Amino acid sequence: MKRGLFITFEGADGCGKTTQLKLLAEDLMMRGYDVVITREPGAKGLGEKIREILLNYDGDVSDRCESFLFLADRAQHIDMIVNPAVETGKIVLCDRHTDSSVAYQGYGRGLPVERIKMLNELAVNGRHPDLTIVFDIDVETSMSRVGDEKDRLESAGMEFFNRVRNGYLEIAKQEPQRVKVLNAAKSIDEIQKDVKKLVENLLLI
Ligand code: TYD
After folding, report:
1. For the segment 162-192, what is each residue's pLDDT rounded down to a tens digit?
2. What is the sign of the dihedral through the CA atoms of 106, 110, 46 and 12?
């Protein structure tokens, strides 16, 4: 059986990661790999209900409550979707994961980063990505891509998203083996080539 892989796609809203995830998935599937596309928050089932609250609840949400909802979704997602797929040799491409909590709830909302990391460890129970790709882009460009119809998190403002961006860059500095940063201001084709290069290295191992 082929070795399973877990690859996560990260970056601020509007960075283009979802487009790149789909392009990579198509390429890998054409080459015969067994690929699972998934996301946080809210891949399936219970997760979808948690996602609905996180993105659309219109009352006040405390920062800690928000963090725990993302973490609850993550624990369910790891147990029900990611682990079964990786353990049976599939390549799991996941749109957002632990680094989103560190970047958004930690650096963005200002909760203690080390504590978020600890809670992430509880949620993932030993499963860590083989590769994380951060799509880095300036906040003006990413916000203009999101447009005017923003969900609860996308409405957090420029300063918030600057902190999120810097958070991702800090994570990459701390874990250069796992986390690779790509310039997401390039064209879709150019970024796709950069993504493929990173993943190719992993497929050779
Ligand atoms: P989504 O519509 O999936 O956004 P995107 O297409 O940009 O991934 O919404 C997910 C939102 O939740 C996004 O604004 C990032 C945020 N988020 C956190 O704040 N913390 C987390 O741990 C996760 C997984 C996502």
Report:
1. 999 999 999 999 999 999 999 999 999 999 9
2. negative
